[in-house]
Amino acid sequence: MLQQINSGLDRLLVGVDVGSLWMARAGGFLILFTVGLVTTEVLSRKIFGRSGVHATELTGYIMAISSSWAFAYTLMRKAHIRIDALYLTLPISVRSVLDLIALLSLALFCVLVVGAAFDVTLLSYTGGARANTPLSTPVWIPQVLWLIGLFWFSIAVVLLSLRVLFGLLSGNIEDVQRIAGSPTLDDQVAEENKEAAR
Questions:
Q1: Per-residue buried b or exposed e for 150-167, using 16+ beta carbons within 10 Å of the residue's own CB
Q2: Quick one: the chain helix, strand, coil %, rounded to 5?
């Protein structure tokens, strides 16, 4: 039974991984778009003495959106910063339990953040809030895009938490470490060699 649950969660996590990659790519494209906006604004001010690009406002929205869209990818690739000097000295079973606690804490944080972000977005939409700028942007538009990234991140965190929990319950500690554990220096070197070989 636990093996079937783990297999189902693994399939879901593959889908989340693919979706996270595409969201991170879209966020990267938005950042490149930001570079174009800022460049256009600088050249416009230099050549014409003024600009109608409004890069400052748009880049602020884009940075928030692209960051939230990259959160899940960072989680799935274990690319977030970890302070693991003590962690790596502990037995693998203790590390796996700590990984579960960390993921459950992150899942709780996500629930709180997504709930608050949803309330803010809904209030902006129902209240007709607009940015106090020349563009007068309806602020719910960038907030919805920001909320999508946060919601996707929370899905990734919850599914990963469940996978680690059921992995622990089934006694497959090595699997838990592969999925959620902090990579050792040897693991990182092996991964870099694998990437270089491609």
A1: bbbbbbbbbbbbbbbbbb
A2: 80, 0, 20
Q: Is 172 helix (H, G, I), strand (E, B) or coil?
A: coil
Residue 163: which residues within 8 A CB-CB, separation 6 or more? 6, 9, 10, 13, 179, 180
pLDDT tens-digit profile of 23-49?
999 999 999 999 998 888 888 888 887
Rounded to an integer, what distance in angstroms lies between the CA atom of residue 159 and that of residue 157? 6
pTM: 0.87
130 backbone dihedrals φ, ψ, rounded to 5° = -130, 150
Helix (H) or strand (E) holding 156: helix 140-169
Question: What pLDDT digit, counting tens, does each position of 37-95 carry?
Answer: 888 888 888 888 777 667 788 898 999 999 999 999 999 998 887 777 788 888 988 99
Question: Sign of the CA dihedral 127, 133, 135, 137?
Answer: negative
